[in-house]
Specification:
Elements: E1 35-40, H1 57-63, E2 68-69, E3 78-79, E4 82-87, E5 94-99, H2 113-126, E6 139-145, E7 149-154, H3 161-165, E8 195-201, E9 205-210, E10 224-229, H4 233-241, E11 247-250, H5 254-261, E12 270-285, H6 295-304, H7 307-314, E13 319-321, H8 336-341, H9 346-355, E14 362-369, H10 377-390, E15 394-401, H11 403-411, E16 417-422, H12 450-460, H13 470-483, E17 486-499, E18 502-503, E19 521-522
Parallel strand pairs: 1-10, 1-11, 14-15, 14-16
Antiparallel strand pairs: 2-3, 4-5, 5-7, 6-7, 8-9, 9-10, 11-17, 12-16, 12-17, 13-17, 18-19
Helix pairs in contact: 6-9, 12-13
Amino acid sequence: MFYRASLQAAAAFASLSLLAGCGLFSDSGSETDQRIAVGTTSSPSTLDPAAAWDGSWELMRNVFQTLVSFPTGATSPAPDAAESCDFTDLTSTAYRCTLRQGLKFSNGEKIDAKAVKYSIERILKIKVKSGPAGLLGSLDHVETKGEDTVVFHLNKSDATFPFILATPAMSLVAPGDYPADTIRDDGKVTGSGPYLLDSYETGKKAELTKNPDYKGFANRKNDAVTIHYFKDSAPMVDALKKDEIDATYRGLTAGEVVALEDGKADEKGLRIVETVGADIRFLVFNPKDPAAGKLPVRRAIAQLVDRDALVAKVYQGTAEPLYSMVPKGIAGHTTSFFDSFGDPDRKKAKAILEEAGIDTPVAMTFWYTTDRYGSSTAPEFAELKRQLEESGLFEIKLKSAPWSAFQEGFSKGEYPVFGRGWFPDFPDPDNFIAPFVGKDSVTGTPYAADEITRQLLPESRKESDRGAVSTQFKRAQEILVEDVRLLPLWQGKLYVASGDDIGGGERALDPQTVMQLWELYRKASW
């Protein structure tokens, strides 16, 4: 996806427990009548799903429904507003869903096949710039059959379509409250999700209460949630220490995570849980640049970059070295770059350049953005510069720009080498390969990769069993290593901090790293 602008910093998420001896909590208890207060640095940019392709998904997951979604612990979509969904053919070109009976929106409107068709088609009709319409590139048309059945006809095989329908961008909206051709902007929400949005103050607070008419998979362990939006993480952590909020679910910096893990917070009763995340960082090489366009130069850089040192020095262990564009935790993950280049080695890098007759040091310019991926980006690029120059084989000049100017620059092909981040739309290897290849690569630098675009991806998209496409994605990752047009650097870890009376944090993130607030609850004792 276009990188979620509101997702900040290197380590900013939540999930599996680090706490020795703490198992999963019971779904029952008398404390579910209490409101839970959470803090985040990721405030919504919109309340209308048709415009949302960013951190707005956090709130939307909790107040809207999608036909399919990710129940706790699931790795593939399961029915939510739908009673059942499946492909009707062997080539994954027609996807049929039958709705649950008795569903209705919070304004009383019935949720039927026409409402589903309306919700999806308005995304394409409005087509917000940098919005989610791009996710529906394989959709040809939507057909309704009776009141409770809808069929999505695709213009090509696309076994990832259920994953797309599971994104909060595909939330079902009430036709009576959402215009067909414009974005709703009155600051209100009409959905059918686990919670109702009682009130919303832009950039400050959202008040949620349990939706009494909700019918879906969510087992709500609290009755109400207040979300506090913070501009920076420091006041958020301070609020947690003062018991003004119960938990944080996005925005912790590396330093704050380390302090909490080491018990340096000097506050009694705070806990932190961790798991591997799916957000990644990587370098992009412009093939039209005199230096970056040379494969031996790219291979030499790949041979020199020390990911372990980068993660240790800059991110203090709150990220993991990444040796493939498909990260750890996603089906099809490999360590293809490590398999090909091994540990950092100056002698091997020098030999690569000498064999190609390339004079050293090679002068290059690396670009990064100052306001999109957190405050650690500048130190990260300083460390990359140090590593490459320490070899004596490169002279690196660093340049930076705010996101708006940065995006314009790389889209015009002005940058020789630049850093990008990727936050997945859905947990499938396709979403870590397809966006970066082809003439419309989201990196702004067209990347033909014909074997991937014409053979491997089309083959994989015919297979609805996503566990059966490892061969195609293994080969795709081998091609990315052969070309070194993209150089993966690291993947984030996910964290949530909370008071020790709050349970459910280890179950609260779905595979899209979107918080399921209904999993949080207050415990009287541990």
